[in-house]
Design brief:
heterodimer; A: alpha+beta; Uridine Diphospho-n-acetylenolpyruvylglucosamine Reductase, domain 3; Enolase-like, domain 1; 3 domains; five-stranded antiparallel β-sheet; four-stranded antiparallel β-sheet; about 35% helix; B: Aldehyde Oxidoreductase, domain 4; Aldehyde Oxidoreductase, domain 3; Aldehyde Oxidoreductase, domain 4; seven-stranded mixed β-sheet; five-stranded mixed β-sheet; 28 strands; about 30% helix; binds flavin-adenine dinucleotide
Amino acid sequence: MFDRLRAFHRPATVAAALRLATAERRAGGRGAFVAGGTDLVVQGDGSLRWVVDLSLLPLRYVRRRGAGGGWTIGSTTTMADLERSAALRRFADGVLCDAAATAGSPQIRNRGTIGGNLANASPACDLAPPLLALDASAVIAGGAAGARKAAGGRRTVALERFFRGPGRPALNGGLLVEIVIPAPPVPRGGRAAWAFQKLGRLQSDIAVVNAAAGVIVGSDCRCRWARIAIGAAGPTPLRARRAEALLVGRPFDRDAAQAAAARAAGETRPVSDVRATADYRREMSRVLVGRALDECLERMGRDPWASW
Amino acid sequence: MSGASPPSPPSRRAVVGRRVRKVDGFKLVTGRTAFTDDIALPGLLVGRILASPHAHARIRDIDTRRAKALPGVHAVLTWKDVPRVPHTTAGQAWPEPSPYDTYLLDSKVRFVGDRVAAVAAETRAVAEEALRLIEVDWEVLPPVLDMEHAMDPGTAVIHDEPDATGIRDAARNLAGDIHTHIGDVEAGFRESDLILEREYRTPRQQHAMLEPHIVICWLDADNRLVIRTSTQIPFHVRRQVAMILRIPVSRIRVIKPRIGGGFGGKQEMVLEDLCAALTLASGRPVKLEYSRHEEFFMARTRHPQILRLRMGVKRDGTIVAHHMRVLAATGAYGSHCTTVQGNTGSKVLPLYRAPHLRFDCDVVYLTTPQAGAFRGYGCPQGYFAQESLVDEIAHELGMDPIAFRLKNAIRQGDVDELSAQLGEGKKGLPRTIRSCGLPECLEKGAAAIGWKEQRNGGVRRPGRLLRGVGVATTMQGSGIAGVDFAGAFLKANEDGSFNLQVGATDLGTGSDTVLAQIAAETLGVSLDKILIYSSDTDFTPFDVGAYASSTTIISGGAVKKAAEKVRDDMCCFAAQLLDAPPEDLVCRDNRVFAPGGKSVSMAEVAVHALYKEKTQVMEGASHFNTDSPPPFCATFAEVEVDTETGRVRPVHLVTAVDLGVAINPMQAEGQAEGAVAQGLGYALAEELVLDGRGRPANANFCDYKIFTAKDMPKLTTILVETEEPLGPFGAKSIAEVGINGVAPAVANAAFDATGLRFRRLPIRPDAVLAALGGRR
Ligand SMILES: Cc1cc2nc3c(=O)[nH]c(=O)nc-3n(C[C@H](O)[C@H](O)[C@H](O)COP(=O)(O)OP(=O)(O)OC[C@H]3O[C@@H](n4cnc5c(N)ncnc54)[C@H](O)[C@@H]3O)c2cc1C
């Protein structure tokens, strides 16, 4: 399958990984970073001449970021790590754990990494919707654009701008170092909830559609902040900004949730393929966003006015 | 419902009827070398096939000079280099009832994936590079992809070669047809109070066995061709390869190691001819195997069908007439084309004892992947249609679907005359029902699913999740009457063990274990005393192979006969030691007992025979049946329909099956459960999709979805044992019957939940959603 492969590097530092990749690129020939290999190996690109394996880099971590309630997640952290992280389980209703737990099978989750999931830039990847609903950013080292920009060769890209198209991450040959999640802006007396929904054809499947929602309400139970993210319903995972806008400033209830779900479906740009038709995907976007928002509602307490 | 079956068989048996572990289980779970690929041969070359990118095209010219010049390439074959012998790849008893419309390599290709050329090289990379260097000058012809238009005037003719034989009407792309009847259906419809006519569609399903097709060939020290292959039909393969390569059968030895699953996909000579040709051309050992991607479209599939059924009944629920019309696609070649479709009629229609039955069927060629044998062999299609229609009629009449089935179902003592008209490629034999536990299957299955409590009644209630239950009743055969036969050979060793040599092929069914159990029980020895070996055409007797649910009843019948002869021989020698007449002796517990209780061990008898009497105790026997006793099955499904997503989720599947006597109940349950898993895929997920140019759109496990452990519902398997006079120890069969009822039971359950009928498989969420929307 990888008949042309002639070099397999296993560096121990990010700097060494970037150096090796740069040197290989100069020497000519196609190559790639590899983390868990669950996308790269399956894709089986026979033209690859070199591979830089990232599994020895010290990037397998889930850390709190300062005292504010934010997080950083190293790019080689596996899906299984996320699924089992007790700390993340308590953050944002465990939405990242829930999403990670739906990916593939235990074997895939033991190998597949968060960095690979995002860098592969599949519109259906399961970690993108929850991370979009958490306003996450990607920290990238090296690469054509990175060298010129920020100090130390690192730059931060909001996840929404990270996905440029199917299989087209905004990496420019750089290395995805970590994911940064800011502290959600929950006001005093307010409440927040997140939820993830995925629909496959069978239990173990790439998403036909997936969706995540995050909602913050103030002490007046009006929605202050809303995030709705949908995957497999366009060329990239997308934010349904008009649906979010529909929620903000209004009381968050079932009617608002259903209206937002309907509008979110209108913001999708799905395609028809062997997995599902575009119409079905659009309709399922509505259903899944509706379910995710309902779940948020449920998590905040059945009647948000009760505790007001 | 009264238990029509006789009392359970004797529990005195020591080995038969016991849940013994698989005889090859340890070796498999510890990863010992068992499979075709588990050998290392010095100088082994890798074979690769150049697959056609076109659905239909002629090769004007093909230039292999650059490929041949590539270092490391040892053979390049095109149609110019090999004999042209029309044949069928179907693994059937000679003379095969399938058309001879296939060639080792041809100057025409008939589907995307068809063989253009083959290469043997030192590595896979070199072989693939060589394929890229082959230059083909194509004359692209129009594809024929729609079975409903395959016979239209002006359609491209797929088999226009002059030397094919056995094709019904090549000019109309008609591979075969079947027209048969009993009584007069039109008269029957005139007598009917209610007539329903419905159309059903079934998909192209892939076997998805764990081990893809793989063959390793070499020339032994005597220059004989050795074919080590993952096949269900080693003896047919030997005959077919001899014919295709024009070499004597005596120059070929076929070795069948353990097979990693087949489901009918290996009841077919798929790669052996080409691998053998590459070995002969290169003089080197060659391995030829399909990748998983290739397996999906270059191997075989289930025949897709469009079925139109018309059934007439009396107001009291008596079925009077049933007319089944089938249009089926065999794909590019006609292997198994009329036999699979014959089964759709002959093993489905007679389940209900209507006086007027009619079966009309056309099987057309298409420029699509080739269909072939597949677990159920035509029955899953027919039963999906028939059991859906019967359910609808019962509903229309306001009858309980179980009561309707019991009223009409075939029963013990009945003779099915339709089977006499629809034999394998010729007139068949009538089927007499000597054992039938169907009423008990329905009774026990209904209790297990909670039929009375769980039924929703086919009305749409409000709510997001709707539940319902459904039932289907089905049958199959046990071997092909008057066609299937097998041999078995046994010899005694001095420690009281016995070598059992059979041509039968265990493809994961557990037949090695079942056959060893039959031998052990007959000989009165423990299972560990039977050393079973299957199969090698040089050393084991002939067996048609593992198909048609035949192994337990046919190969098992041969084993039982051989074991009885060996037991008699052992008793003769034991008689000398025990000083008692041989006919009074009894074999059990690895000993031979005289009437007074005096006994000698089998080992002592064997030593006596060998070293005193200078005799090797050894016997062989052959067996066949002139009837094919059907196993019966009642499948019940409980499903949950999500009205927002259209997903139909199976919640509980009950299989109550009359398999005769279960030689190994544990393995029998495994067969039933595996059939449910495959049947659920057929019902809800599996379909090989082709694009507008005939190219596969989902030839991988990411997009061709099969049911995994995570998807499986609760399973209940109930073995309803009956005593079948024609089977060894009363056994019939279990391997196929369980798949037939899954799709209709699921569809009927979905109806029960929603009030909607789904007549196209797989039942896709978008179709369900559209149907639900239409009713909103
Ligand atoms: C059977 C199966 C089931 C699957 N199911 C799912 C599923 O349900 N949901 C889902 O979302 N995914 C699924 N996947 C896809 C895959 O497992 C995930 O996308 C996984 O997270 C990829 O991570 P990886 O470490 O294996 O990536 P790799 O294969 O190692 O890499 C993927 C791509 O990202 C690049 N890359 C990796 N790490 C970096 C980095 N740090 N910086 C820059 N580039 C990088 C590589 O060069 C490559 O192009 C499945 C895959 C398989 C085989």
